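Bug #77: duplicate submission created two jobs. Keeping one. Sequence:
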Amino acid sequence: MAVVPIVLLTHEEKRENVGGVAEKSDITLRNQLSQLPLDFIYFLGVMLIFGFANFNKTLFIYRAQSLLQQHDMSLHVAAGWALLLYTLYNIVRACGEFGMGILSDYIQRKNILAIFGFGLFSVTAVCFVIPAPHISMLSLFFACAGFSAGTVKSLEKSYAATLLP
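Kept job's structure:
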């Protein structure tokens, strides 16, 4: 939504060249997009869809807290466990970024991003719908979410760079 005012309300001023004649500017969004490789355009579409589907990870914390509260944990204890699980998420994410960055030097980034980034995120999001009040199951879900986030974070920009000239 932030791009819409920029596209609609800004314009390139005509510049005069040395002879005093105004140059026609060739800088338009359509022109710029047409110069990009088709594979990159598809990748932007996939990232757009993923961006719409990706939600704030604090919802995982809230879900874990509510599941733990449903099974006779007090609010404070459930919130404490949920924050510990989020800490696990961040540790796995950091390790995932590093590990998947190394692995992507040997295996195609596209496949890793599709399977461990987008695919694992999808499976994990569905798993959070399942009422799993056990800390072990929630730990697995948070670890998978962290690994998925680390994969996407480390590979989305590097894969985009391989698609561009």
